[in-house]
Design brief:
The chain is α+β, with helices and mostly antiparallel strands and about 290 residues long. The chain has two domains: about 160 residues, Sandwich (Jelly Rolls); about 110 residues, Arc Repressor Mutant, subunit A. Helices cover about 40% and strands about 20% of the residues. It contains ten helices and ten strands. The longest helix has 19 residues. The chain starts with 13 loop residues before the first strand and ends with a helix.
């Protein structure tokens, strides 16, 4: 999971995602592939989770926070290492794992804004071995898939995944279990109108979850929950739906090329539009245009 004496951004055997694909400000996603070995790991300002991607169980010796674990990690099992906690790892066999680094201030902000933590109370993540958490595994695999795209215009989707991952860690893997607030009523018609108008005016842009939440002076987590409660869709799902509706209009009412329509509706390529269009409508843009 690491190599001794080597800075984290220069780990031998790691598969770095190019900077232009890394669109997450608060989370770093990296896939690591290493031959049998051992190493020390320490990250002072980021929490780290490792998810095994090896096709078969791999034996590890892991030591962190004065506790040791020696056993097999199966595909999808997770190691959680809080910031500033030294970790020693030895593995027997070809390693393949996903490493997610999360800024401590981001996780602290999530704890304060969404889980009613006292502002001067520091959130503490628990060091844990061989964690089974299907939600974290699913979120991190979606993050990896999106970050590996050659070109991405799904900032809202990435922001949503980062926030859901952070909330999951705070809720289930902290030293204390905060009380979750109860949401009632959803967004008001006026608030929804503000959001709908903003999205409609910026369909061709790479919208951020933060931008939408700030329009209503809400945290990103609160906004996402209230929006889905009101609309029945996540902000990202609604954005895709509106982009498809705009594309439908342009396909029927103009002679623009499908590529130009894709770009003007916020998709990054002809194939990106076609994929999403087929998912929503069941047919391709070309088939829709001639129907």
């Amino acid at each position: 999971m690491t190599n001794p004496g080597v800075p984290l951004n220069q780990v031998s055997g790691s598969l770095h995602l190019p900077k232009q694909r890394q669109k997450l400000e608060n989370i770093r996603v990296e896939q690591l592939k290493n031959p049998p070995g051992e190493g020390n790991y320490l990250c002072e300002d980021k929490h780290t989770i490792f998810i095994s991607l090896a096709p078969r169980p791999l034996e590890y010796l892991q030591i962190q926070d004065g506790v040791s674990y020696n056993g097999l990690y199966r595909p999808g099992e997770i190691l959680i290492t809080p910031a500033n906690v030294p970790l020693f790892v030895r593995w027997k066999g070809q390693e393949n794992c996903l490493q997610i680094q999360i800024k401590t201030e981001f996780l602290q902000k999530i704890a304060q804004e969404t889980l009613n933590c006292v502002r001067n109370q520091r959130f503490q993540l628990m060091p844990q071995f061989q964690v089974h958490d299907s939600h974290i595994r699913g979120i991190t695999m979606m993050l990896l898939e999106e970050c590996q795209q050659q070109v991405s215009n799904n900032q809202l989707y990435l922001d949503s995944l980062a926030n859901v991952l952070a909330v999951n860690l705070v809720r289930h893997h902290g030293t204390t279990k905060p009380i979750l607030p109860v949401y009632q009523g959803g967004l008001s018609p006026h608030q929804l109108s503000q959001i709908f108008d903003y999205i409609d005016a910026h369909l061709d842009q790479n919208l951020k979850l933060e931008d939408l939440a700030q329009l209503l002076d809400l945290s990103q987590f609160h906004f996402s929950r209230l929006f889905k409660q009101s609309v029945g869709l996540s902000p990202y799902q609604y954005l895709i739906e509106q982009r498809i509706e705009r594309a439908k209009q342009l396909l029927k009412q103009t002679n623009q090329s499908i590529l130009d329509i894709a770009l003007s509706c916020g998709f990054n390529s002809h194939s990106h539009l076609t994929k999403k269009f087929r998912q929503v409508t069941g047919i391709t843009p070309k088939a829709y245009r001639i129907s």
